Every structure is written in structure tokens, then in C-alpha cells.
Amino acid sequence: MSTTLLHVGKAITPKGEIANAGILIREGEIESIGARADLTLPAGAQEIRAEDSTAIPGFIDVHIHGAGGRDVMEGNNDALATITGKLAEFGTTSLLATTVTADADDTVRAVEGISGYIATQHETNRARAEILGIHFEGPFLSKERRGVHRTEFLQLPSSDYLQRLLHAAAGNARILTIAPELIGAMPCIDAARSLGMVVSIGHTDATYEQARAAVAHGAHHATHVYNAMRPFTHRDPGVIGAVLTTPEITAELIADGIHVDEIAMKVLLQAKGANGVVLISDGLSATGMPDGQYKLGGMEVTVSGGVCRSTAEGRLAGSTLTLDRALRNVVKLGVPFASAVQMLTVNPAKVLGIEFKKGALRTGADADIVLLNDSLEITHVWARGITVH
Fold first, then answer.
1. Low-confidence ranges of the chain (pLDDT < 50)
2. Exposed site from 12, 83, 306, 369, fewest CB < 10 Å?
3. What are the beta bridge partners of residue 185?
4. Residues with a known catalytic role
């Protein structure tokens, strides 16, 4: 792998903004970063000059179901390679493959396939997003707040089924979304936490007290806040009230302007602050594709005007949002640029406990780098030092 010195107008780093910055990339990692004047071009290295660009870390999407016409529940290398290749074009350089509630045997087969792909994903020197692990969205979800998850496959939390999923995941299980009000939820949360998983409250009709009980057992994340949750009212704050007022909970947000109203987004952003929000896509196979018919697991989804709805019920069913658009959308809301970048990079990396390897432009981190122009549009992407475009 070649050595590259990237010269940019500015770089956003954990220590702040560096003007006229240099980023030295070697063997897929950032070897050094600082003022360009302080860096020496190594012998044989190439220098890429992009002084009109801003360098930020590659985006990390902890909740995405597919892209490029393919779905993670297909669980085969061809589908997963297509998804990761397409997402890299939009600046997402790391992700969690997110399941959807389905038949137990089908889910296990998909998870085994994803785990197999993860084990070999770096054998080819191709510029693709990296699958960091698996986010289990289901089947331990509320029937009342199921969204488009199929009722017949929902289950009460079960340590036996959780163990079956974890065995199939082969060490790649990262997040479990669960409705904490369900019978058996607390032992399931305890089991997941004991294995180092992130437990996320989601697809839930939980009261405030039930949500706080989950927090006491170690849940500290919330799946696509507002969506598929018991509504907030002034006499029944519910799970949303718990999310808004509990500092240790990080809140996922789909900032596409469709799933959550602008004012509700502002409320969440003001309540949680820059450290407490993780921007996600909840993207489907339709991501990066034209309107038409697509799949979410075994469900038919119709996409019109970029909006995804289940063909059978007409409910919102994920999105076609890409994280570069999410960045621009929250900046338009008045969020400072560096804070918006944090919600797409540093925050999800911290949720996963990998902030020294992913989500930051720092020495020793993977060279996952996105260049933006003044309109915050992507001009270039590197995934682990390999150029995407």
C-alpha cells in the first residue's frame, strides 16, 4: 500500500481544527497529522493537494439495513459487498449491519452470513465501508410500537434465542435493540451487557419508570428516537422523557426531515447536546437507488420521492438517507459544523468503544477520511487508506 501525504485547507480533529493541515497515510492508518509546514514528505510518497477542502473522519452508521439495491438480511458476500461499496461513495466508511425481525432460522442464516463476510472482508484490497459488527433490531420489540417489523416474528425476550443469535454472530454482536417493558427484558439486558454488547431501548411502549429500570440494568442507547416509541406527553413523559433527561443515554436520530419534524429534532439536540446524539440513516436497500420497489428483509417496500413505505401497510419503513445529507441537514438546523461531524463520527465510535481507532483524525487511527467542499458536499473518500473517489 502506498504512502500518501494529504494537504487540505483544514482538518477537524479531536483537539480542534487544524488550518492548512497535512495528513500522512501509511499502510491504511494515519501515521501523523498536523500543520503541513511541520510534516516532511517521505521518500517515494505521493502528495495530494486539496487546499480548498475540509478533511473529516469517515462516517460511522450504527443502524443501516442495506444500500445499492441489496439488503443485509440476504447474508451473502455479494449483497454485503454491494452495500459497503455503495455506502463508501457517500462517506460512510464503517457500519453495523442491522437486522430486521424475521423468521428465527432465516435470521440465524443471515447473521452467520454476515459474520462470515466480516471475517474475510479485508482479504481484497477494495475501497468499501467496513462492517464493524451486527446490530440486532428485533425480535424483542413491542407489538404496539413495532413499526414495520412483522408481528408474527416478534418474540418475548429469551436468553435461549439471544444465545442462538450470539453464537451465529461469532463474536460480532454489537448492539441489541429491546423493548424494556416486555416480560423477560431485564435478564436479557443483563445477559447482553455481560457480554459487552450495547443495549438500546427501541420499538417500545415503555413508561418513564420502565425505561429508567432498563438504564439501571445497563441500557445506555436509544434506537431512532421518537420513531416507534410511546409518545411524550406532559403527564406521561414515557421513554422519550427518559431519553431526554438521562445523560448516559445516547440517542439515535434520523435527520432526513421525514421521520422527525424539525422542531422535534431541535428539542432532542438541545436536550442531549453535541455529545448525546448519534446520527443514523436507518437506510434500506433503496439507499443510493432510484424510486421503485425494494426489500426490507422479507417485506416489500415502495419508495416514492425518496420516502420508503411498506407496500402492504403504507407505514414508514426506514429511509434512503445518506449520512452526508444528514450532516448538511443538521447544519441547516443551526448545529455547529464540528458538532454535526461529531454526531456522525466520534459519538458512534464511543458508543462502540472504538474511538481511538475509528471516528477521528488522529495518529494510529484507520485512514477513514472524507473531504468536503464549502457546500459540505463530498469530493473524495478514503476507506482505510484506499481511495473511493
1. none
2. 306
3. none
4. 282
